[in-house]
Amino acid sequence: MKPSELVKILKRDVIEGSIELYENLLNTTKEARDPVWKGILPMYIDFSKEERTVFF
After folding, report:
1. pLDDT for 45
2. How far out from the chain centre does Cα 43 lie?
3. For the chain, N or C: smaller number of CB within 10 Å?
4. Which pLDDT tens digit goes with each residue over 12-44?
5. Global pTM?
6. How many angstroms separate the CA atoms of 54 and 20, rounded?
7. CA–CA separation, 33 vs 28, rounded Å?
8. CA dihedral 34, 48, 53, 55 (to 10 degrees)
């Protein structure tokens, strides 16, 4: 396997997969207990659709 192929696979599975997970969580979570999520969630909820796209 070439290094560039490995990077493409890691990018797809790790980075893009994680972004999808967090985007789904932020779109479906209404209340958070974690201090970081408590800070991010209200801000994310107030974002416009365009701001959410830029955020990710």
Report:
1. 95
2. 14
3. N
4. 999 998 999 999 999 999 999 999 999 999 999
5. 0.71
6. 14
7. 15
8. -40
Reported as half-sphere exposure (CB side, CA atoms, 13 A), residue 29 has a value of: 17
How far apart are alpha carbons 27 and 34 in whole angstroms? 16
Q: Which positions ≥6 away from 29 have C-beta within 8 Å? A: 37, 41
Cβ distance 36 to 48 under 8 Å? no
Which domain does 49 fall in, by range? Answer: 3-55
* Confidence grade of residue 5 (pLDDT, cut at 50, 70, 90): very high
E runs forming strands in 1-56: none
Number of domains comprising the chain: 1
